[in-house]
Design a protein that fits this description.
The protein is of the alpha+beta class and 796 residues long. It is 21% helix and 31% strand.
Amino acid sequence: MNRLSLIRPLAYFTFASCFALALQAKSTTDSLAVVPTPSELSEGGFISDWIYIEGVSTPKGKRRVEKSFHEEPLTSQELWDSLVGGAATINGESYKWNAVSIEGSVIDFNEYLDGSEGNIYTYAVAVIDSVEARDATFGVDFAGSIKLWLNGEFVHEHWTPGGGDEDLVSISLKQGSNQLIAKIAGATGWELSIGSLSVEEANLKFADAMEAMSIEALDKLLAQGLDINAKNSQGYTGLQIARLAGLNLRPTQLVERGAEPNLELPNSVASISSIFEGGVDLDSAGLAYLIAKDGEIISKGGLGKADIENDVPITTQTTFRIGSVTKQFTATAILLLQERGLLSVEDPLSKYIPDFPKGDEVTLRQLLNHTSGIHSYTSRPDFRKKAPTYVAPHDLVEEIKGYDYDFEPGTAWMYNNSGFFILGYLVEIVSGQPLADFWRGNLFTPLGMKNTGAYHNSVEYENEALGYSKIEGKVKLAMDWDMSRAGGAGNIYSTVEDLFLWNEAFHNGKVLSVESYRDATTPALLSNGEKADASGRHYGFGLMLSDLRGSQMIQHGGGLHGFRAMLSRLPQENITYATLSNSGPSNLKLRRDPFSQIGAMMIGLDPMEESVGSSGESSDISFEDYVGEYSHNSSILTVGQEDRQLFLQHQGSVIKNEYVHGFGDAFRHPKSSNEIVFERDESGKVTGLTHVRISGTFTQSRIEPIEAVEVDPAAFERLVGDYKLNEQLTITIRVEEGKLLAQATGQNSFQLFPLSDVEYKAKVANIRMVFNPVDDGSIESLTLHQGGGTIIAPKL
């Protein structure tokens, strides 16, 4: 699901005159005028009559979609004039206005936007009749991105790429007809529901919503009479939810507005089931979940259908394919063989597969922690076509041998299914038995995991969940992998109850020795001695390593067509979390990441410090300290300042996000709960910034200015061309307006700054490129240095 950016508010227009114009045109001409049917919206009622245009196609790519939604293609007059003609002309294309009346509360535009592909947006219009002028709280539940205007005035926006949500909007209705216009967009969902809530309903949703809404929206709802200490369906107040999410400024803002900081937290165990229940359609694909602490299951359950057609419910005994959660079982098998003296994780791959390219340079350790550089077979363009067909392990390993490396072994980190498929193959070579048999005899049977095994498509399993995908708004049976192609990378099936048995044994010393367990849960090191950056976290052996509100977290997810899995552990608190879903891409609608929410609930809250005063501003703060460029992966964030306000703009985006000062080095976004905190070194110099969001945190490092040398732009011409990084990835070098630009396949372009006539540096992702000439001065290749990794790319 896609959420799109701010667009300019439409100029004020009078609906009565437009309505009259439409009627006049209909009676005097052969017009196809579409006239809105008014809805009488009392408390608890929903808008059921809409007029909408067919979906407007936009260019693919997040930033381009964002821009096209941000830039208004029609004025308000043009939009409403088009109602009279029955069609709107946008970018030279005609889009017909259509009327629809729905039963119930939700309009699913998937049913009406036939033939639309990719990321699109639409306009929808409704008319609300009100007997008297009144203030109302509207619930706006949507699957994509949305903006709303009431009587020509902008009243609400919600843009974020993560998908839809349910918002509260303060609405002031006038007596008589009120016109509502919505601009909505959705990549994977187009459901929309807008209704007027009772005070009780609004307060229940208010607690959930106040952590993320703008201060302006928060204050409007408080002025309308909503309770800042209202509790959600789990019994948590908005302040408690914001604190559990790890936010810093929002709790202070809520306390300043009367939120009670010392209310007792509700019983977390009683709250867990309701967290899942609110996000699962019980008549569709769903999930099983299990939460345990100190070895005792404290909550478990199944929601939705394992088999929709045959109405089979999901239970905690339902088996699901667990995808990459399998990797920790493959890693454990390798470590058990090491403990028995049959191999070493420091062995080169060539010891077991002598003819493997660069096999002398790749170690089993590098396969275990994704630093081998071997290209992942699931990233191949033809993989989806091959996935439903059987493959023998030896044959797939032979295929993998033919791939180019993504980087030199040990120099970088990249998630890699090839490495774990090879490891599963090595278990068979070294142990002399099929991988499935080794797992069963050494792990599953001894631990009592009776409903776990290697999946075989030819076998009929009891209590098996079928895999479903939500595509273009419809839940359908997903593509069925032949699980021979998953191997040691992901072909195990299991239940949440069996995964609980596994987690308790694995993390309590009942599977591996202390030394082996420590090795499996230690962050991977690159050949230069630095910890590998695993997309902002660390990686062990088939395990992702990070933290949750200061507590160590060991986890791994899994994903196949039709299935999603997560198995997590908080070792300090002895908490196990397991969820298995038969929906991928997902049809689940969970407001927050359940594990982060449940984990934080069970960790609890530290005493709240006294309010620091987020509305004040220190006059001695130098905003110039923050101005500059910051890098995260391949993206650049530019921070500027004007009149003691910061503006953040992402590379390629047309939007400048304003942030206002909170306290110290912390700033907040005025229209959401997003925060940024700048980091300083011991000398006080700003070295980076941390984004604090409900969805988690991530850090961007400050980009130091590049001391470029003068190079005649004419010298750039010999560098121009395409360079092959691997079989799927080419980097194109070109010159535009005297600047040397580089662009990898499917990625944004970036500028290269000369350190010499053949050596260049980019601001993004710490990239350095050295162009390699031959005797006649022409360029035969480039050497890419990035994140400690090195790739030589021949010129095509």
